[in-house]
Amino acid sequence: xxxxxxxxxxxGEYTIxxxxxxxxxxxxxxxxxxxxxxxxxxxxxxxxxxxxxxHAQREWDGLWTRTWTCAGRASDIPETGxxxxxxxxxxxxxxxxxxxxxxxxxxxxxxxxxxxxxxxxFGKSERFTCSFHGWQWKINGQTNLITDVSTFKPEVLKGxxxxxxxxxxxxxxxVFVNMDDEAPPxxxxxxxxxxxxxSYQMEQMHVVKDVVIxxxxxxxxxxxxxxxxxxxxxTHPQAKPFVDEVHYQLDFFRNGHGRxxxxxxxxxxxxxxxxxxxxGLAYMxxxxxxDPAAYEGRAxxxxxxxxxxxxxxxNPYGIDYSGFSDSQVTDDWNYSIFPNMTFNTxxxxxxxxxFLPHPTDPEKSYYHVWVISRKLKGNVRPPAYMGVEPHVDxxxxxxxxxxYNSKLDNELGEVLDQDISNVEGVQRGLxxxxxRFNRYSEQEQRILQLHxxxxxxxxxxxxx
Length: 464
Ligand SMILES: [Fe+2]
Fold this sequence. Notes:
Blueprint: H1 32-35, E1 44-45, H2 53-64, E2 69-73, E3 82-88, E4 91-99, E5 102-107, E6 122-124, E7 127-129, E8 136-138, E9 143-145, E10 165-171, E11 174-178, H3 186-190, H4 193-197, E12 206-215, H5 219-224, H6 232-235, E13 243-252, E14 258-264, H7 279-287, H8 302-311, H9 326-330, E15 332-337, E16 341-345, E17 349-357, E18 365-373, E19 403-405, H10 414-420, H11 423-429, E20 438-439, H12 445-460
Parallel strand pairs: 12-19
Antiparallel strand pairs: 1-20, 2-11, 3-4, 3-6, 4-5, 5-10, 7-8, 8-9, 10-11, 12-18, 13-14, 14-15, 15-16, 16-17, 17-18
Helix pairs in contact: 2-12
The structure holds fe (ii) ion.
Fe (ii) ion binds at residues 231, 235-236, 419.
């Protein structure tokens, strides 16, 4: 029987907690139109945005070099001299712990002939030495050695030879950088995000999975696959028995950020059978300490059972859930930080994704998946859909290596594998003579917001 989207449901306007007081986590935002009066201009967008070199150049000049983006985790540089490399498009940035409580960022480029100073992802150094002629900088970016300095005419070495710095600030254990000296501080840029996400205490979580995959699709094609739940019914049919992707809440925050709340442990109205407990739901119950064999409730009551099991002080996860609303305890709150990050937040752990443009080809991008986890009791694992393999140590004792996986052998788990299975077909289809423009439903409003906010940057950028 074909499913008819209920007439009475306004997509994104379902409010799980209508009584949510102002400022509380679940509070529904005003509709998108209040922040973007021109939202309807984005109901169609041109395919060129996803493959044109000229558009990619406008994004580089107007967006990437002017906004805050996440460079990495502060926990990856625990000691003075620890550094990590952050490649954003054609630029490479070196993020260093220069003192016990100080993190700084520099352009990763030798001031002699332009060689990159570090090539690996992570490291620890007392000096940064160029592998070409041995020029050397201290970890705080000050020039330490110019090899055979007397052989340079004085005017050749005039001006600043320290490593040029990049603005760098930290929030929730994530290090952000910004190449624009005129941009507002990170806290202003993040707007409502820190307030709503504070209960997760992500600064206390540790990395348990770190995978990067190069895809033959523009970064926005890949990101957009994670900004709506409209695709669940076709792309993730196995999730229908325990994800209600019809009644959900969409929130729109300032500066392009947003979120999508989806109830978990509750069958979709698209399911004909909403009583029988499906295997995926049984797994969730078991994990929360509810024996599925003894569970007598219907599938539609499982979310309540999950909530009750987690609210017990001695719950199997060893987590104090008292700082979380009921919907945070059981459901998926998918936050997005403009321009290129999403967070599927749960008290136990967070699935973090970053969508990075390719240095030269707008039809390629890097899809970066991190899973960060709280310290969990016993054998409990982060939520199964995050794809953390059973053999991976999630205690926080060892930091798993970053994996550069192929798209076919991506090791992302079933759900994310399904997500990325569509994006390269989309990228190819965008070129078709028979495809004129994307058309977005009201279920895909966060994509309208993405394009509207990108255009705010592009129109603010002076012509190059
Ligand atoms: Fe998906």
